[in-house]
Amino acid sequence: MKRALLTAAAVAAAVMFAPALCVADDARQDFTLINDTGYTISEVYVSPVQADDWQEDVMGEDTLEDGQRVNIHFQRDETTCRWDLKVVYADDNSSAEWGNVNLCSVSEITIHYDRDKDKTWATYQ
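The chain above was modelled as a monomer; its predicted structure follows.
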């Protein structure tokens, strides 16, 4: 009898807190983007890995100056952790892309650019 009551209590608690756990999973996809490129970023796109297009610019009308950071919040119907990221630079509309970023485990993305080597890369935390 005692075991049945404990099991029932555990199931009830799981059902009660399940919606909160789903919200927490969605919030983990948000991240901080840091611009360490030497250039202004005018657009940021975040799309599920399997998507055929980049969807909407998650920064809207804002820009991200060199040395600045922005908290990226986005709402998607997808529940995946794997996302592709694209940034577009304001000066010449060139872009850089990164694929298969696990936004369930990454909270901060810093974008770097080495002018001498003409190389762009990202680091994740």
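The chain has one domain: 2-124.
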